[in-house]
Inverse folding.
């Protein structure tokens, strides 16, 4: 049985070229903080990756700090700004459709005396500019808005939001973990001060990420130690994973246009096939201003988790929500935020297409899925 992996929004297959490069770099096991030649070779590997990452974002190398992934990058951005600039009634603005690694740090900061506004979105998952302007007050110190949502793929108008924040002198952060593999990103054009990415979303290893922090932004470290990564991320660097992340970022940017066209064709094929072969479905991903890679769809009268399980038995791998929360028996926060009732939200599954998928993969899904949905509906009714 051929396996079909349609869960790239959760994690991607590591590129063969990246694996080879990581294997090569793994032979240089010297500690990059050591002054001897072996350690300094490891240090050069890190700095080469830093140069590549900064180039992909139109940033400077000293504005990139490596982390263990997107979660740590988001926490460092939000808690780092908050704790370094705390003042009475300090206020943070974010949205209801952020990843948990943004929502939960904000909730934690509320226990520490910070005020947080969680802005709603419309049925397309989009934030209204007027709501941001209305939420800002004299104590607002940080705005954090996801670049592209990980469940439905909606892409926020970051440049406009960033312009508002810049005019008001407010620090602006974005979680670009899902966006980086698909969208050209220029931190200056987007007016962002902080931006998070994670390597396993663009065909590198898990356990590595990066935070862009604009020169002049003051952050309080999450933990303290040897002072690596400009004193913002103490701990011996994961040289091999960082090296792989740098190469993967370079490949991603070089191939982005071709990969996007390929993924878009597969998306259209999947959507057309679902419409033609399965009645009573609702597409939750916007048709415009959304990532081509994500198709979130609800199947009336079907449990999304049951459907995911049955598809897995057929060798087709998808999820019923974000990877970090798809096992919970409650409706997705994002899907309820865009106005879906509980039954529709609970019947949703997310297909996330990657560059290694093929038309054969989509055909296999369309050959299997209609019968599974029909059988589940018969059983449930």
């Amino acid at each position: 049985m051929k396996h079909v992996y349609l869960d790239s929004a959760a994690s991607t297959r590591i590129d063969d070229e990246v694996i080879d490069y990581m294997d090569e770099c793994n032979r240089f096991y010297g500690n990059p903080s050591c002054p001897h030649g072996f350690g300094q070779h490891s240090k050069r590997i890190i700095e080469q990756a830093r140069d590549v990452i900064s180039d992909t974002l139109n940033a400077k190398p000293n504005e990139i700090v490596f982390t263990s992934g997107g979660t740590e990058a988001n926490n460092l951005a939000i808690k780092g700004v908050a704790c370094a600039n705390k003042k009475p009634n300090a206020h943070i603005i974010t949205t209801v459709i952020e990843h948990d690694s943004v929502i939960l740090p904000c909730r934690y900061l509320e226990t520490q005396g910070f005020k947080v506004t969680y802005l709603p979105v419309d049925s397309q998952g989009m934030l209204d500019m007027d709501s941001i302007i209305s939420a800002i007050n004299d104590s607002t110190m940080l705005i954090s808005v996801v670049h592209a949502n990980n469940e439905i793929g909606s892409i926020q108008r970051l440049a406009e939001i960033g312009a508002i924040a810049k005019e008001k002198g407010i620090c602006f952060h974005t979680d670009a973990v899902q966006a980086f593999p698909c969208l050209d990103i220029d931190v200056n054009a987007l007016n962002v001060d902080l931006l998070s990415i994670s390597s396993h979303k663009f065909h590198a290893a898990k356990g590595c990420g990066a935070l862009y922090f604009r020169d002049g932004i003051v952050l309080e470290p999450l933990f303290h130690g040897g002072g690596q990564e400009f004193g913002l991320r103490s701990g011996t660097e994961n040289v091999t994973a960082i090296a792989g992340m740098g190469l993967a970022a370079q490949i991603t940017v070089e191939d982005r246009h071709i990969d996007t066209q390929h993924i878009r064709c597969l998306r259209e094929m999947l959507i057309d096939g679902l419409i033609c072969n399965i009645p009573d479905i609702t597409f939750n991903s916007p048709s415009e201003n959304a990532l081509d890679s994500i198709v979130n769809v609800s199947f009336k009268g079907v449990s999304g988790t049951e459907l995911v399980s049955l598809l897995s038995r057929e060798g087709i791998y998808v999820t019923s929500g974000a990877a970090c929360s798809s096992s919970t028996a409650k409706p997705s926060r994002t899907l309820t935020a865009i106005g879906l009732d509980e039954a529709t939200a609970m019947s949703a599954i997310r297909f996330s297409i990657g560059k290694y998928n093929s038309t054969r993969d989509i055909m296999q899904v369309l050959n299997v899925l209609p019968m599974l949905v029909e059988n589940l509906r018969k059983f449930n009714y």
Q: What stands out?
A: Residues 16-251 form a domain with the Aspartate Aminotransferase; domain 2 fold (CATH 3.40.640.10). The CA atoms of residues 129 and 161 lie 7 Å apart. The first strand starts at residue 4 and ends at 5. DSSP finds eleven helices and twelve strands in the chain.
